[in-house]
Amino acid sequence: MGDELKREQLRRWVRCKSTSFSSAVAALFAIASMCSMQLGTALSLPQMMEYGTASMSWLRLCFAAILLLAIVRPPVHTYSRQQWITVIALGGTVACSTLCLSEAVRRMPLGFAIAINFLGPLGISTFCVRRPAMLVWPVLAMTGLLLLARRNGIWVTAPATLIFPVGSAIGWATYILLMKRIGSMFDGLQGVALSLSVASLILTPFGLAQSGGHVPERQFVSAAYLAVLMPLLPYVMELSALRRMSVSAFGILMSAEPAVAAAIGFVVLGQPLSALQVVGSFCVVPGGHPNSSGYGHFKLPHLTLPG
User: Fold this and answer.
1) pTM value?
2) When you count CB atoms within 10 A of the terminal residue's CB, does the N or C end of the chain come out lower?
3) Are 40 and 229 in contact (CB under 8 A)?
4) Do 87 and 195 form a contact (C-beta atoms < 8 A)?
């Protein structure tokens, strides 16, 4: 009896350590993803200014999709109708979100654009809040957003341009939910490869129209290496993270992204930050940590797509 009890305790200890290790790996994937995404976005800005947002977004998605398809080689003839519906939904979301975010960073500082974009995962993390008093944390995040919106008493962008980061925020929230779904429906990176392919096909007419049917060699080279930083590495790492953690925990962890974006915008793009904007960046981070402040853990409803 004593030996059996010891073995059971050992099994529990191993399970606990395995869970802790998996959670740590998921957090590292999420952090690496946001750094790669923001660095890729910052480095893409000069190319987007020169060649156009639709053209560069399209080429980046094409290169990422081709590389993943060559590596993964998904058995497309074996997928069900439900799987294809999910792939098409995620592909459309990626296409719209990518284009909206690209247009946003052309018109406003990177940190502010990503802070608005962050409203997507913030909405997910507060979806099932049970205590109204805990809404103080999203309010703190919104306060940080307002501080980021002004520099030296001047708004950093025109109100009409907010349609782009808001559209990207809606897309990002949908993307997180669908990426979690993709991770449970497909083996490995098959779902991501197909979704990126769909996204590139959707943007093809817009990219070709903006480039006039002619893509310069320099643009090809730039798009090829930028595709690795964004979207290839972030999407692969986010899928890996979401397979190891809940959607709400992922949304909370990504609350650091506006601060990361502001720092990369300052270092890489030379975008100035006032003292109040620095404070605003740090207000957004704790504002996205509702679980650490009493929200508790929750599960989002299982997504059932039509068909």
Assistant:
1) 0.81
2) N
3) yes
4) yes
Q: Compute the mean pLDDT over every residue in the chain, rounded to the nearest whole number.
A: 84
Amino acid identity, residue 295?
A: Y
Closest residue by Cα to residue 148 from 136, 156, 138 = 156
Q: Residue 32 in contact with residue 237, Cβ under 8 Å?
A: yes
* Phi, psi for 300 (deg, rounded to 5): -75, 155
pLDDT digits (tens, 9 = 90+) for 133-150: 667 878 888 899 999 999
pLDDT at residue 106, as a whole number: 94
CB 226 within 8 A of CB 55: no
How far apart are the C-alpha atoms of 7 and 166, rounded to whole Å?
A: 54
Query: How far apart, in whole angstroms, are the C-alpha atoms of residue 94 and residue 168?
Result: 9
Domain residue ranges in the chain: 49-293
Residue 215: Cβ within 10 Å count: 16
By CB neighbour count within 10 A (0-12 exposed, 13-18 middle, 19+ buried), where does 241 fall? Answer: buried
